[in-house]
Amino acid sequence: MRKTLVFRFIFAISLVTLFILPDPSFAKNEVFASKNQEMVAKNNNGIVYGYGDTLKGFTMSVWAEREVKKSVAMNIFYRGLNKDLKQYINREDFAAISVLTLEAKYSLANNYDIKSTFLDINRNSDTYDYINKAKQYKIVEGLSETEFAPYRDIKRKEALVMLYRIYKNYEKTKFPISNSSRVIEFKNSKAYKNLEDWAKDAVVYFIDAGIFRGYGNGEYGLNDKISNEQALVLATRYVDYLRDLSGEIALAGNKDLDELEPKDSSQDGSILYKNVRFSESEYKDMQAYLDFVKKHPIKNELKVYSVNPTKGGANGKVGVLNNSTQSDFINVINRFRMAAKVPLVQIDDGLMKKAQHAAYLMYDTKQYGHFLKRKGADLNLYKIGSAAAKESNIGYNTSPNSNVEWFIRLCTLDNTAKNIPRLGHRRWNINPNMKYTGIGIARPYFVQYAFDMSRSPKVSPDFVAYPSKGAFPLELIGGAPWSIELGRTYSGGGKKYKLNPNKTPKLTLTRLSDNKEETFYRKSDKYVGGKYFNVNTEGYGYGNAIIFKPTIEINALERFKVRIENILDVNTNKPTILEYEVIFF
Q1: 562, β-bridge pairs
Q2: Which of 523, 524, 585 is nearest to 554 (CA)?
Q3: Please, which residues bridge with residue 436 across strands?
Q4: Order of strands across the sheet with 346-347?
Q5: DSSP character for 481?
Q6: Which one of 291, 358, 494, 575 is at 20 to 30 Å from 21 when CA atoms are compared?
Q7: 435-454 in b/e burial notation, b at 16+ Cβ within 10 A?
Q8: How far is CA 137 from the centre of its chain?
Q9: CA distances to 12, 354, 438 from 207, in Å
Q10: Which stretches of the chain drop beneath a pLDDT of 70?
Q11: Do 562 and 509 contact (CB within 8 A), yes or no?
């Protein structure tokens, strides 16, 4: 019997905008919050919307502009920062931002002790009071009782620790660290193993909250410096996150700059959302995704079985996954499929059995791979399990906290040197003609049945892209490669495009906010680090794939254009161009 966990075509992401930190250091000089407040205007409804002349003379990256402006409205912006906000921030300036961040969220008595024990800070400096406040608030510590090192650059991990102390010391609404795939991935990384104990709790907290994600590819850059603009963006998103926890509405009980209701344009029907214009279809897709995530949460419970697997040959128990784990599995894979704009899938009892047998066979015989040997296993177990292993995505994780979200994310991003040239796991998971699937777990082995092609009638989209055309959740791509599948063969292709057997496709990616471009047209051996391009014609998923990995920085609410040349029209066999836009949220 088929289990029909049917889900509505809708989705959602966390209330927290994901943050990928780039650089950092510190500046000098400053102005108190009262001066910041003078630069902020209010409209008739009391909503803060302006930033006066506060940013006059400051320069910043395009990606940071919206949230730097918002930091002014939230009274987090410190006017003593280096005029070039792309420069690194120093300890004294980050101390100022930290104090402003704390005071933006919490009402504190203004009776701090300004008698400093630090001998290396200037009493006439604009940051003198901020440094002493930061010490009293237990946000910062000196290198010693007498040394603060105000002009020393600050590292990412240090910045996260300072802001984490705000949560630790002042936030009443606290939640335990979750068992999310982000946390598991980080705790399994070299970055975590090499991280000092004093910084671990802070970094895990910000990764779990979704505020900090690093560069991707398991690289977090925790020893890298942090820039002024990154510090402001981090602080702004952090205050939003803390207000979320306590159920507050930002900026004195009114909607802040980031929460304004979208408004339809009277000219073209487009929608203004968070000061960025979406087409009507893009906005609907985004809201559908957000709604799906809200209605179908992922629990990641540590207990995954209703019947635990046990070794013992013919007398062993294969194991049965509990309902919560099955729900997590189908919710996770359908998030990725919704983001790719392909039909959602359902769990099938028969495929669940096959996948569980494959996982148990690996567990019972201590082997891992698609082609399994019997090794004394029960004959029926071997027949079912070995056949399923050949038709499935498989994973291995020795962590006792490993879960289906980690596994499906690992498969669908496919962001390892071995997998990037093909992206086979991803292409099966977003295959538009998959209708049913199943999951098996016998820790440390994970198996997902991937070869189903039973959707009827078959669907034949013009192409299957990941990230897909239109609105796309940033959290589901990170630093992973992009892919565009045109169809199954050179001769047939999809219903509109096919590869040109005589030419390599030429792909151009343009970030439309500043028209920065990257062009891809030749293979690269840099599978994980740096720019990469490949064309793969093996029969994974929907078929022939153009794979590329950009080095352009990607942030939420930025729009990109993909243009592919040197391909053919299926019907005319003449050269054509495939062009589409992606906007991340």
Answers
A1: 509, 580
A2: 585
A3: 346
A4: 346-347, 436-442, 445-449, 392-396
A5: P
A6: 291
A7: bbbbbbbbbbbbbbbbebee
A8: 32
A9: 19, 35, 29
A10: 1-53, 107-116, 173, 216-217, 244-269, 313-315, 489-494, 523-530
A11: yes
DSSP-derived secondary structure letter, 445:
E
Q: Which two tokens stand for residue 554?
A: 């990607």
The dihedral region occupied by 523, where left means phi > 0, alpha psi between -120 and 50, and beta the remainder, is beta
Q: Which residues contact 122 (CB under 8 A, 6 or more apart)?
A: 128
Q: What pTM does this model have?
A: 0.64
Contact 546, 505 (CB under 8 A): yes
Instruction: Determine the longest span between alpha carbons in the chain, in angstroms.
Output: 82
**Which residue reads 């199943």 in tokens?**
438
Taking 3-state DSSP, the helix, strand and coil percentages for the chain, each rounded to the nearest 5, stand at: 30, 20, 50
User: CA nearest 331: which of 411, 431, 405?
Assistant: 405
What is the enclosing helix (H) or strand (E) of 333? Answer: helix 323-340
Give Cα 490 to chain centroid, integer Å: 34
β-pairing, 271-273 vs 276-278, is: antiparallel
Between the alpha carbon of residue 353 and those of residues 19, 257, 390, 421, 526, the distances in Å are 39, 50, 15, 31, 39
CA 535 – CA 529 distance, rounded (Å):
18
The angle formed by the CA atoms of residues 86, 211 and 199, to the nearest 5 degrees, is 90
Q: What is the pLDDT of residue 49?
A: 31
- At 410 the pLDDT is 94
CA distance 30 to 217: 37
| Radius of gyration of the CA atoms of the chain, in A | 26
- Do the Cβ atoms of 104 and 74 come closer than 8 Å? yes
**Closest residue by Cα to residue 163 from 129, 182, 147, 139:** 139
